[in-house]
Amino acid sequence: MRAMVTVTAPANIAFIKYWGTRDPRRVLPVNPSISMTLGRCRTTTTLAFTPDETAPDTVTVVDERGRATEATGSFRERVVRHLDRMRERAGRVGRFRMATRNSFPTGAGIASSASGFAALTVAAGHALGLDLSPAELSCLARESGSGSAARSLFGGYVEWPSRSGDPEAPAGPIASASHWDLSDVIAVVDQGEKEVSSVEGHRRAPSSPHYEQRQRLLAGGRIEAVRRAIAARDLAALGPLLEEEAIELHIIAMSSSPPIHYWKPATLTVLEAVRGLRRHGARAWATMDAGPNVHVICPAQDGAAVAAAIGSLPGVRQVIVDGVGEGPRLEPGHLL
Ligand code: DP6
Q1: Distance CA 50, CA 312 (A)
Q2: Which of 10, 198, 207, 321 stands the most exposed, by the fewest C-beta atoms within 10 Å?
Q3: Smallest Cα–Cα separation from 204: which of 258, 248, 249, 245?
Q4: What are the backbone dihedrals phi and psi of residue 262, each rounded to the nearest 5 degrees, phi first?
Q5: R_g (Cα) of the chain, nearest Å
Q6: Is the dihedral of CA 113, 116, 118, 124 positive or negative?
Q7: Kind of pairing between the strands at 294-299 and 182-188
Q8: What pLDDT shows up at residue 1?
Q9: Cβ of 289 less than 6 Å from ligand 1
Q10: Burial letters 139-170, b for 16+ CB under 10 A, else e
Q11: What is the pLDDT of residues 114-139, one digit of tens each?
Q12: CA 75 → CA 79, 140, 194, 291, 297, distances in Å?
C-alpha cells in the first residue's frame, strides 16, 4: 500500500459502439463493443488515502495551465460514489484526497470519463492496498457508471465484454498497440459539454425504431467482421464498418424519444470532407461518440496530412492527432 499514488490511464475510441444497457444499475451493455485505446489523450490522477480519518474527500481538478480548482456538483458526487465503492470493496474506512488532470484540453468535448474513471479505479486499488488484476479493475471501472471506462484498462484494441454471451465479463485486449499503428485525428467542432449524457442516451436508445435492427446487424456478423479486420490490419474492410456504426448510433439517438441531436453543422462538413479525401485516394474513415466531434481513423503515416486537411475546414476549432496507445501505468510524480 502506498500513502500517495499517481496513475495515468488512456481514453479510447469505440469502433463498435456501446449504446444501450441491459442492466443500467450494474452497467451491463446490451451488445459487445470494440475500441482502440488512445496514446496521448490520457487522464492523470493522484490519490492520497488516510486511514481512520473521516473528513470529507477532496476532489481537485487541475486544468491545462496547472490551475487547481475544487470540484463541486455532479462530478464530485460521481467520484465520491466511486471511491465509496472502492472503500467498501477493501473493507476500509478513511479519507481520500484526489487531484486529476487531462492531457487533452478540458472542455474539448472529448470523453474524459473513460480515462478518468479508469485512472481513479487503478489509483484507488493501489492506495487501498488491493491486489487487483486488470480484469477485476475493468469490472470495477464499469461500475463507476462509465461503461467505456472498462475498456480503458487495456492498451491496443479492446473488446468489452471479453467473453461473448457473458455481459458481466470484463473487457480484454484483442490485439496489442504494436499490432497496428493507426491514427485518430480528432476534429473538435464544439467545445461545450454535451446537453444529453451518455447515461440518458443509453436509457432512451430502446425507444428508437432502429434499435432492434442494429442489434440484429451486430449479431449478424458486424462484430465478427471488425474483429477480423483488426486481426488482418485491413483498413479497407474496417473503415466502412466504422462509419456504419457511428451513423447508426446517431440515427438511434436522433430517433429516440425524446430525440437527441448531437451533431453540429461542422460535423457534416467534416464527414463530407472525409468522403472527399477518400475520393482522392486517402484511406480515412470517420467515427463519432455521443457528441458532435469527428474522429478520423487512418494509417499513422497519414495522420499529419489528414489533420492538415481537416484543420482548415470551417467550424473546426481544433485538431488533435492521436493514435493507438498503452493501458494505465503508475507515474513517479504527483499532482498533490
Ligand atoms: C457513444 O456510458 O461509457 O461513447 O461515460 O460518457 O464516456 P461516458 O459514456 P458511456 O457510453 C459510451 C458511449 C459511446 C460509445 C462507446 O464508447 O462505446
Answers
A1: 50
A2: 207
A3: 258
A4: -90, -20
A5: 19
A6: negative
A7: antiparallel
A8: 61
A9: yes
A10: bbbbbbbbbbbbbbbbbbbbbbbbeeeebebb
A11: 999 999 999 999 999 999 999 999 99
A12: 6, 18, 14, 19, 30
Helix (H) / strand (E) element for 303: namely helix 303-311
- Reported as a pLDDT band with limits 50, 70 and 90, residue 191 is confident
Say if CB 62 and CB 68 are below 8 A apart.
Answer: yes
d(CA 95, CA 149): 24
DSSP-based helix, strand, coil % in the chain, nearest 5: 40, 25, 35
Helix (H, G, I), strand (E, B) or coil at 154: coil
Q: Does 310 score more than 80 pLDDT?
A: yes
198 close to ligand 1 (CB < 6 Angstrom): yes
Nearest to 187 by CA among 288, 291, 272, 310: 310
Q: Tell me the pLDDT tens digit for each residue of 222-273.
A: 999 999 999 999 999 999 999 999 999 999 999 999 999 999 999 999 999 9
CB distance 58 to 70 below 8 Å: yes
CB of 114 sitting under 6 A from ligand 1: yes
193 is written with which cell numbers?
Answer: 459539454
Handedness of CA 267, 224, 10, 28 (dihedral sign): positive
Amino acid at site 234: D
Q: Is 141 in the pocket of ligand 1 (CB under 6 A)?
A: no
> Which atom from ligand 1 is nearest to the alpha carbon of 27?
2
Q: Is the CB of 112 under 6 A from ligand 1?
A: no
- 280 alpha carbon to ligand 1 midpoint, in Å? 32
Cis previous bond, 314, omega within 30: no
147 lines ligand 1 (CB under 6 A): yes
185 SS3 class: strand
Question: What is the rounded distance in angstroms from the CA atom of residue 16 to the CA atom of residue 27?
Answer: 17
